[in-house]
Q: What sequence folds into this?
């Protein structure tokens, strides 16, 4: 997996198979949530994503990991909603990272929003630009795939309404909470470990008395 900013001047790295858009009137992204998963409630979300990505194909999908209570996800939403119109031959997917913890772990999503470019079922590049706008997203896709965006696409009022929500909802950022707890646990472990080693070294127990 390669990590490249939108300022890269290198040749395109991903040779995407562009889909046939004949007969498609509306270009929009798909949101994959647990409530939308096929089959029983116990159906594994990983399988749903893998089926959507199709490992046997070479088409490309831009996948956004977000949470509805993250203000950065909300501010990105209208820009990401407009991308399918800018790149009609590519596919776009968004999923709630809090509902897909196994996917977040699998693809190294420790913070949201997180955007990955997939070819088939393989992650090829990660968007790591701090300025998340339609223009920087278009530059990222062009730099990675060589596919040019439609020139007349802009963020509209409809993009602010959905399908990806741009209004915050109340909730707990479990990814952030997990990260903080993990960091706190690591610091405590390192502290205890250091103290144990110090008392095992001869003469260290008398250091403060002298």
A:
């Amino acid at each position: 997996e390669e990590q490249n900013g939108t300022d890269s001047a290198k040749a395109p790295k991903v040779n995407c198979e562009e889909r046939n858009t004949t007969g498609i009137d509306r270009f929009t992204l798909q949101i994959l949530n647990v409530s939308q998963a096929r089959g029983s409630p116990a159906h594994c979300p990983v399988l749903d994503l893998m089926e959507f990505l199709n490992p046997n194909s070479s088409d490309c999908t831009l996948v956004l990991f977000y949470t509805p209570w993250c203000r950065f996800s909300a501010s990105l939403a209208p820009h990401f909603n407009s991308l399918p119109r800018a790149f009609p031959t590519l596919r776009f997917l968004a999923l709630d990272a809090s509902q897909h913890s196994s996917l977040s772990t699998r693809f190294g999503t420790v913070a949201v929003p997180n955007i990955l470019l997939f070819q088939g079922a393989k992650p090829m590049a990660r968007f790591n630009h701090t300025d998340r706008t339609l223009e920087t997203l278009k530059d990222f896709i062009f730099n990675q795939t060589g596919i040019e965006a439609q020139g007349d696409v802009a963020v509209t009022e409809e993009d602010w309404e959905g399908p990806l929500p741009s209004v915050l909802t109340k909730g707990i950022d479990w990814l952030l909470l997990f990260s903080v707890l993990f960091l706190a646990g690591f610091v405590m472990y390192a502290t205890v470990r250091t103290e144990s080693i110090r008392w095992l070294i001869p003469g260290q127990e008398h250091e403060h008395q002298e």
Q: What stands out?
A: The beta strands are 2-4, 30-32, 60-66, 91-96, 114-119, 122-127. Helices lie at 45-53, 71-86, 101-106, 134-145, 157-161, 174-200.
